[in-house]
UniProtKB/TrEMBL annotation:
Coiled coil: none annotated. Residues 24-280 form the EAL domain. The lineage of its organism: Bacteria, Pseudomonadati, Pseudomonadota, Gammaproteobacteria, Vibrionales. This is Cyclic di-GMP phosphodiesterase Gmr. It comes from Grimontia celer.
Length: 295
């Protein structure tokens, strides 16, 4: 037991720890060096096509493996990071890590052809005029193409400087990246702004999903957003699908895909690859059964 408090110890992060964490971040300048010391890590949450059950991608979510505090979620440190260009270093680190991992997976013979990986970018990333060039430099060192990546920006961040964001999104889209508007429905944009955007996905905020099966207003809002998205040729990803009733309702409404604890929590790289392999094995088995029953 004593050993668990030693070097290999970990603690489960709780919100009450935030003040303590902020103290450490600010006094030790820990986050400043976290990127260089390789203390950041990326988890992957699978994204599932609701009609087929196949995995169609995963979202990369940053974690900080702190030497003293253990594994920290973004809520513990991103707010501090977002106050300065530190958040740009973090986002670029995650982007680069994802590009290197995708390359590794390809080299290991994993079928990534139908898998898109989402990366979250803060407002500061989208406001850099040379973002596309900076990203290309990173990708040039790998075998990862823009077309394998989805770049996510929250609706809220987008609305802070909508004109700039529209231009950046256009440029990135032209380079082949897919674009997702994250936490959609919470950022006070009017729905009509969507028609001016070259985005590919909207991620319906999990506050709408929580009671989608039981609250008629959440159900109707979700239905309306899905109809609008359909008109605008945007694919909808539901966030926070936690239960069977969530998933059944979303599928019945024709929502294309979902992420959430019902399918899987964000997983470390190995856990994600196991989950993907298992899903692909099941998918090819059912294809095989379907083929057999046809012939
Ligand atoms: P997000 O992009 O909306 O990511 C989804 C968050 O919801 C993740 O939290 C995920 O763990 C959580 N989640 C997924 N399924 C469920 C569910 O069924 N129920 C519930 N209650 N939660 C679920 P996480 O990993 O703590 O990330 C929080 C936020 O931090 C992200 O929200 C994103 O805005 C930000 N973030 C994460 N990684 C990065 C990054 O590399 N760069 C930037 N700029 N932001 C990041
Ligand atoms: Mg996201
Ligand atoms: Mg989100
Ligand atoms: Mg969110």
């Amino acid at each position: 037991y004593a050993k668990r408090n030693g070097r290999d110890s970990y603690r489960i992060y709780t919100d009450e720890m935030t003040t303590e964490v902020n103290d450490i971040i600010e006094t030790n300048r820990g986050l400043n060096h976290a990127v260089r010391r390789d203390e950041l890590t990326v988890f992957f949450q699978p994204k599932v096509n609701l009609a087929s059950g196949n995995i169609v991608g995963a979202e990369a979510l940053v974690r900080w493996q702190h030497p003293k505090l253990g594994l920290l979620p973004p809520s513990a440190f991103m707010e501090v990071a977002e106050k300065s260009d530190l958040v740009v270093d973090i986002d670029k680190w995650v982007f680069s890590k994802v590009a290197r991992l995708v390359t590794e997976w390809k080299n290991a013979g994993i079928d990534t052809s139908s898998i898109l990986i989402s990366v979250n970018f803060s407002a500061r990333m989208f406001y850099m005029t040379d973002l596309a060039e900076q990203l290309q430099k990173i990708l040039d060192k790998t075998d990862c193409e823009p077309s394998q990546l989805i770049l996510e920006i929250t609706e809220r961040d987008m609305m802070r400087d909508f004109e700039t964001c529209v231009r950046t999104i256009e440029t990135l889209h032209a380079k082949g990246y897919k674009i997702a508007i994250d936490d959609f429905g919470t950022g006070y944009s009017s729905l009509s702004v969507l028609k001016n955007l070259s985005a590919d996905y909207i991620k319906l905020d999990r506050s709408f999903i929580k009671d989608v099966h039981s609250s008629s207003s959440d159900y109707e809002i979700t239905k309306a957003i899905l109809q609008l998205a359909n008109v605008l040729d945007l694919s909808v990803v539901a966030e926070g699908a936690e239960t069977r009733p969530h998933v059944d309702t979303l599928r019945q409404l024709g929502c294309a895909s979902a992420q959430g604890y019902y399918f899987a929590k964000p997983l470390p790289v190995d856990g994600w690859l196991d989950y993907l392999e298992e899903n692909q094995r099941k998918a090819s088995q059912s294809d095989f059964i379907r083929l057999k029953s046809v012939t």
